[in-house]
Amino acid sequence: MRLPVDDEIYNVDAVWLGPSGKTLPFRARYVAYAIAALIFFLLQVLERRLSIGMGFFPLAYSLLVAAGLTRLVLAFVDHDRPVITVVQALINELTAPRFTTTTVRPSKVVAVPLRLPRHGRRGEES
């Protein structure tokens, strides 16, 4: 007997469909609106810190960058990996302890003369 797979329940996205005839021209999950708003807000704060004035083109570029970054972020987010898990994984990856490597400079290397074994030394007879 073959059991059906329950993956069909995950094919339904939580998207706003709106009333009939009044839908948005695109489909986006609810989490996409929140992420886009957060990215747009952070871009606006960054623009103000860089003394970029408020105008049509800075707002339009911020909207375009926010939409692109939202698509990039949501490429890693699905029902198995929520946003908070992806953010926590990023934080863990950035703050993980790393091995420190030491660089040896040639000027700091001390040359030691080679000592031959006792039976190979010159002038000694065994």
Explain what you see.
With 126 residues, the protein is an all-alpha fold. It has three helices and no strands. α1 packs across α2. It is elongated. The chain starts with 29 loop residues before the first helix and ends in a 31-residue tail after the last helix.
Structural class: mainly alpha
| Unreliable stretches covering 5 or more consecutive residues | none
* Spatial extent as radius of gyration: 31 Å
Q: Give the ordered list of helices and strands.
A: HHH
Outline the biggest β-sheet.
none
Please state roughly what percent of the residues sit in beta strands, choosing from under 5%, 5-15%, 15-25%, 25-35%, 35-45% or over 45%: under 5%
* Distance between the first and last residues' Cα: 86 Å
Topology, pairings included?
Layout: H1 30-49, H2 56-74, H3 83-95
Helix pairs in contact: 1-2
Give a quick set of tags describing it.
126 residues; elongated; mainly alpha; 3 helices; 0% strand
In short:
By secondary structure, the protein is mainly α.
